[in-house]
Amino acid sequence: MYSEIRRAPIYCTRFRHFVSHRHKDARSISTPVKMRMVGLTGGIASGKSTVSNLFKSHGVPVVDADLVSRDVLKKDTDGYNKVVAAFGEEILEANGDVDRPKLGQIVFSDPAKRQLLNRLLAPYISSGIFREILKLWLKGCKVIVLDIPLLFEAKMDKWTKPIVVVWVDSETQLQRLMKRDGSIEEDARNRINAQMSMDLKRSKADIVIDNTGSLEDLEEQFQRVLLKVTKPLTWSEFWLSRQGALTALVFIGIAVVFGKNISGIL
Ligand SMILES: CC(C)(COP(=O)(O)OP(=O)(O)OC[C@H]1O[C@@H](n2cnc3c(N)ncnc32)[C@H](O)[C@@H]1O)[C@@H](O)C(=O)NCCC(=O)NCCS
Ligand SMILES: Nc1ncnc2c1ncn2[C@@H]1O[C@H](COP(=O)(O)OP(=O)(O)OP(=O)(O)O)[C@@H](O)[C@H]1O
Q: How confident is the model over 121-165, as pLDDT tens digits?
């Protein structure tokens, strides 16, 4: 289950209203079931997962593209078969699983190979993300977050509004990446350079979270972001929600029945 939810998904239908146990302000802007797809992106190690964990802990469901992309490389899936055919069995561990650090070494130091990997996996990743969105839509979720590192690069930004970019300065990014992955500077720089620059991502954002400071600073900014992304939905967002689609169906049904009755009278 990619749309991992730590607490109850309070932004989904069965709760009927935006109810935040922690945020009175969020409760005061409560509104019936609608759907909004919030894009969450940023550079590698900028803190997207940290922010997406905050969303989950406040009951907002998150679709995690990194988890989807892990799944499409699982042994004997179509994505796996295509990647092994293209890159050879030397990218496999003894048990047949993809050796991810090894494949990472290859693709993050060679743009042509990275493009090849992206091309092979892109259809499976986008349909995996779509499946997760559909599941949440069927549950009647009102607000969902799409945590997609390559949101702009893969041109998925047109699906989402607002777009939240997590930004850090480049030195902090490098240090956090090396610390988290236990990697050497060259590998970390290769990974950073494989993505659109964070400043460009920042310029395309609707909302920027500056995560250069402490985790407490981040949490404080997050509270403001939470209020923005859970504000009442627009009509276009409403018609895209499950509730909106059902409402439209009911209206069409009534119009058809009325139309038949009126044409019977005439
Ligand atoms: C190359 C792989 C096997 C390396 O696996 P590894 O476990 O070391 O890294 P992981 O998947 O956890 O990714 C960590 C971060 O790297 C960055 N990243 C991953 N893939 C890419 C890519 N193709 N281009 C640029 N950055 C990338 C993202 O910021 C991601 O959050 C893996 O990243 C992969 O399969 N990438 C291709 C799929 C993809 O595009 N994923 C991004 C989802 S939008
Ligand atoms: N404000 C902060 N202060 C200190 N460390 C932080 C802060 N925010 C995040 N980190 C740490 O920085 C590292 C990178 O954060 P995180 O994994 O959330 O980034 P990410 O953008 O999801 O990375 P990726 O693109 O690889 O998925 C993690 O080890 C995390 O614990």
A: 999 999 999 999 999 988 989 899 999 999 999 999 999 999 999
Q: What is the pTM of this model?
A: 0.85
CB–CB of 160/150 below 8 Å?
Answer: no
Nearest residue (by CA) to ligand 1, atom 16, is 44
Distance CA 229, CA 242 (A): 18
DSSP state of 115: H
- Dist. CA 228–CA 140, nearest whole Å: 20
Closest-lying ligand 2 atom to the alpha carbon of residue 147: 22
State the ligand closest to the CA atom of 173.
2
Residue nearest to atom 7 of ligand 1 (CA): 100
C-alpha 153 to ligand 1 mean position (Å) = 13
Q: Is the peptide bond before 32 cis (omega within 30 degrees of 0)?
A: no
Start-to-end CA span in the chain (Å): 55
Q: Distance (Å, rounded) from C-alpha 63 to C-alpha 3? A: 5
> ipTM score here?
0.97
Specify whether the CB–CB gap between 119 and 86 falls below 8 A: no
pLDDT tens digits, 45-74: 999 999 999 999 999 999 999 999 999 999
Contact 67, 53 (CB under 8 A): no
